[in-house]
Amino acid sequence: MSRLRKLAIGTAVVVVLVLAAVTTFGWAIGRRALPSTSGEVQVEGLTADVRVLRDQQGVPHIYADQATDLFRAQGYVHAQDRFFEMDFRRHVTAGRLAELVGEQESAISADKLIRTFGWRQVAEQELDLLTPETQEYLRAYADGVNAYIADRSPSELGVEYTVLGATVEVESPEPWDPVDSLAWLKAMAWDLRSNYNDELDRAIAYSALDDPSRVAQLFPDYGTAGNRPILTAPAQPGAGSGEQTGAEGPGTDGTGTEGATTEGTGTDDASGETGTEQASAGTGTTSDTVNGMFRDKALRDALAATQKALAAVPEQIARGDEGTGSNSWVVSGQYTESGRPLLANDPHLSLQAPGIWHQVGLHCNTVSDSCPFDTAGFGFSGFPGVVIGHNADLAWGLTNMGADVTDFFIERVRGDTYKRGDQWIDLETREETIRVSGGSPVDLTVRSTVHGPLISDVLDDDKAGAASMDALVQSPTQEGTELGDYAISLQWTALEPGRTADAVFAFDTARNAEDIREAAALFDVPAQNIVYATTDGHIGYQAPGRVPLRADVPGPVSSDGSWPRPGWDARYDWTGYVKPENMPRAQDPGEGFIVAANQAVLPGGSGPRLARDWDYGFRSERIRTLLTEQIDSGRRFTAEDMAAIQNDDWSAFADLLVGVLLEIELEDDYDADGQRLLRDWDRTMDKDSAAAAYFAAVWQNLLRATFQDELPESMWPAGGDRWLAVVQGMLDDENNAFWDDKTTVSVRESRNEILTQALKSARQDMTVEISKDPGDWSWGMLHQLELEHSALGGEGVPSLIRTYMNPSPHPVSGGTSIVNATSWDAASGSYSVTSGPSMRMVVDLADLDASTWVTVTGVSGHPASNHYDDQIDEWANGETFAWPFTREAVEAVTEDELTLTP
């Protein structure tokens, strides 16, 4: 449950009275904020009329003569639909949340961490790096937002201000600024930051288990799951289906695999991105130094302080769990009914109300060099343009690449200095003051090293860090002197200014592979997989992103980014970045399709080292299987086939475990009731399936019995793809030490005893949760989408407000590491959805008007609007809506037309 959703808004009686008034007067207060979507309205700054056409779902298509008018109108429309969400986001990304919601501990902690990151300062630096055109678009967008909010009171902008105003002073929102838009990109980069959890967990697991070989079991190498990377074995030249064949880089034959060079540091070691070559160095070290360091309570305390601080990031932008990922794939026209490509994408993110995406069409009345936009898709309220979608020539989808772009460094800090080599150098410091509505200001000192800010400082007001080190690593020149304290710093590519905003507009106007490559070179963070298809028949893949290079350092701590490592040793510093021209890419592979679903990008030993920790590829392998089976059958793909794959519920977990579970003999008929359901089960997590519900309970109990006795609570298995790979590696080892329950004295459990316990416990859980009769069970009774409003939907908020703000729960199919990735957290004790497809789209490159889309809630952020949650039923049932694109198709479904005039 979201930390900020637990905000205790204040005096419950007052707030309940506010909402009671809303109920009594027919939601009058909520409806006061609803915008006018028809008629005519003047907007300052426009050079000509702009038409805003909305369909049955309220999705706006905007038509303008000039690009600046287009984005000025988009800013106006975003403010109409979602201004409170925008305002909430900018308070979060600036570390000013307590200014909005008042003296709440969670808000102040979040502000401390975001101020420490310095997202706002980085965004301010980025503005000057952008092209003049992008700066002009951002200013026009801000002008449009400000034109809407200028003459409206807070209560006319969002009912949330009325609710907050019952307990805190609500000021008129300040004008929107282009930097407000750029700062939100930092939040999205954080949500897709890849392996930082694994990096911290390795160190914490080592301190708990004291056995590097057992730590290695908990973090299997990608190849152990047997699933393929995005770019597989090289195809033969000439095997592609389009005009271009094979790969586009030197030394490749179809995969786009290339050697990497650094800027100024020569050639990358090309040791293989799956990390198998460094497995022994990363998790099998037995060095006395690293043994001592990671056993040391002082370091464990610093790591724990870091985890606590990072947990303060608002969950709306910090899910980052094993369910966060995405599916995308593209099929060549040689296998489609139309003869042109089909592209599918469904990004998996934390789900809330309103959903993160705002659907929009942006159309220049006449496409030209001065007004080059004719695009539609999904964007962020608060940022101009389309982030994922298509234009008249090209469609593109994004999934998280999982490149390792964050590193934790163990620093030695003494006073206001830190250790670098043989010297103690001054920490960089800056002072921040956090304003608190209705409370006293909070002062914060942010300290940073050459690597980045000290995260272990954030919630430690005394800046004492951990306890003093115990001389496990002696200083070569100051032996016997004070060695200082441990602290943990974070180096992250997004804390350096970049040009991702330029990339968004470059995607919107891309026409071919070369345009995609140029856009990708600007797409610094987050590191994403790009799949694309063109209306003239090409399909392709491009890896963008700023990916750091790390030297191979012999020694006790792996230098590949998989462990926190000594900040005082400069050999562990980043040595540069993979050059954009050396990032993996492919066009028109011989297979005729490309699947990018967070798995490894390249085969081990190929190309630049991008990461070690990947999604283990169970979703991507299932998608590949479904595509290959249909290709082999000779039946050609349609858009409906792509949507069906997006909703596939088959479980790799069940495929691995059911056979073993059925071998367990349960003597008691009551206990065997659930097990019998598995015999004829089709292995799908359908919401109506009793077997699926029982199996989920077995999996939860299996993880609990196997791992919770030895791992700290912060590492209890959530049950995602990594834990499936871990259990997969243990099944044939019936006496693996993890099977033994350390809480049972003088008893050593084996695999079958734990499996038996899991089966029995699951049966009892189902009886308690639903019914004694298995005929009453269904997965959807346990597995539900329970969306909460981003600020006013969780515990601590009066129930009347939650009822008003939160959409009704929906039972859903799917689960963790399933193509229909409605993830849940096995460590939480709940089966509720934690993250999932934030939208689904299928683009038909033969007929763009035949494309389909859906988002998890709706385009509006106003709870009183019909479009607040008018897509949730279709989303939950795996259905989509028609996605009109051409002017004729848009006008045919238009229900409201608003004309913006100068």
Automatic annotation (TrEMBL):
Bias (Gly residues): 239-257
The entry's keywords: Hydrolase, Zymogen
Source species, domain of life: Bacteria
SUPFAM superfamilies in the cross-refs: N-terminal nucleophile aminohydrolases (Ntn hydrolases)
InterPro entries in the cross-refs: Ntn_hydrolases_N (IPR029055), Pen/GL7ACA/AHL_acylase (IPR014395), Penicillin_amidase_A-knob (IPR043147), Penicillin_amidase_dom1 (IPR023343), Penicillin_amidase_N_B-knob (IPR043146), S45 (IPR002692)
Biased composition (Low complexity): 258-277
CDD domains assigned: Ntn_PGA_like
Biased composition (Polar residues): 278-290
Region (Disordered): 226-291
Record family assignment: Belongs to the peptidase S45 family.
PANTHER family: ACYL-HOMOSERINE LACTONE ACYLASE QUIP (PTHR34218:SF4), PEPTIDASE S45 PENICILLIN AMIDASE (PTHR34218)
Protein name: Penicillin acylase family protein
Organism taxonomic ancestry: Bacteria, Bacillati, Actinomycetota, Actinomycetes, Micrococcales
